UniProtKB/TrEMBL annotation, chain A:
Source organism of the structure: Brassica carinata
PANTHER family in the cross-refs: LOB DOMAIN-CONTAINING PROTEIN 12, LOB DOMAIN-CONTAINING PROTEIN 4-RELATED
Identification of the protein by name: LOB domain-containing protein
UniProt xrefs under InterPro entries: LOB
Pfam families: LOB
Family, per entry: Belongs to the LOB domain-containing protein family.
Coiled-coil ranges per UniProt: none
Highest taxon of the lineage: Eukaryota
LOB domain boundaries: 7-108
TrEMBL record, chain B:
Lineage, highest ranks first: Eukaryota, Viridiplantae, Streptophyta, Embryophyta, Tracheophyta
Protein name per the record: LOB domain-containing protein
Coiled-coil positions: 84-111
Keywords: Coiled coil
InterPro entries reported in the protein's UniProt record: LOB
Highest taxon listed in the record's lineage: Eukaryota
Similarity annotation: Belongs to the LOB domain-containing protein family.
The keyword Coiled coil is annotated on this UniProt entry: yes
Domain LOB: 4-105
Pfam families registered for this protein in UniProt: LOB
Amino acid sequence: MGGPGSSPCASCKLLRRRCAKDCIFAPYFPPDDPHKFAIVHKVFGASNVSKMLQELLVHQRADAVNSLVFEANARVRDPVYGCVGAISYLQNQVSQLQMQLAVAQAEILCIQMQHEPTLQSHHQVLELDQDDKALLLHNNIDNCNNNNNNNLGYAMSSGQFNSNFASPSSIMQMQMQMQDPLKQESLWT
Amino acid sequence: MNPKRCAACRYLRRRCPKDCVFSPYFPPNNPEKFACVHRIYGAGNVSKMLQQLPVQTRAEVVESLCFEATCRIEDPVYGCVGIISLLQTQIQKTENLLARTQAEIAVAQTKHSQNQHSEFM
C-alpha cells in the first residue's frame, strides 16, 4: 500500500502517480511484478480494470485480477483469438473424447450382449454413479445435436471462425450441468 | 447527424469518417455489440488492437473480443476463464470415464477368452 516510506504498487509505478493508502490495485499488483499490471493495462486499460474491481466484492477481486491477467496474456500471445482460441481447442478435445467414449461404450455393449444375450437393459452393463450418468446423458444430447450447435463452431487449426456460435451464457449453462467450476491453481500459472 | 454512422461512432457521439476503423465490424443495427466491447476494453484499446493487425483478421478479432467481453459481463469474476475451467473439468471427467470403460472392455474380453478356453477343456 502507498504512504510515506512504502513502495508504490506496480500500477501506480506504471501510471506514475502517488499510491494512495486505499489504492484499489495495490493488493493485487505488488511492486515486484510490474509485468502483471503492464499486460492487463495494455489489453484492458487501467480505468476499465479499476471500474471492474470496484463493481466486485473485495473477496472476489483477487480471482478477477488473476482471470484478467490470464486473458490479457492469452490476447498478447494470440492477438486474433485470445482466450477464445484456447476454448476452441478444448471444445475439440471434448468432442474427440466424447466420440472415443461412445465407441468404447458401444464396444462394451456388444461384448456384454455376446456373453449374456438375455440381458434386459443396457444400464446394467456399466455401474455408473450419478455424475457419470449425467455426463453420458449430456454427451448423448450433444452428439444428437449438430456437433457445434451448442459449442463454439470453429476449428482453431484451420483458423476459420464461425461467428454463429452460442452465447457464452448458454455454453456456461451446458457446462454447469457437470459441476461448479473448478478453479484450479494451475490456471493462474 | 449522419444516419449512416457505425454503432461505435454513434455510441461515442462523433462523426463517422470514411476510413473509420470500427465501421466494417460494428454496423449501426447492432449497438449492443460495441457497447459490450467498449465496456470491457474501451474504444481506444479496441482501435489500437485493430490497427495493429492485418485487415483480413480484424473481423475475427472483433468477434473474439465480443465473445470475451460478453463472458466478462456475464461472469465479472472469471469471464471466459470460467468456461476454460469447466471444459478442463469436463475433459478430465470424460478421460476418467473412458479409462474406466476401456478397463471394463479389457476385463470382459479376458473373461470371454477364459470362458472359451474352459469350454474346450
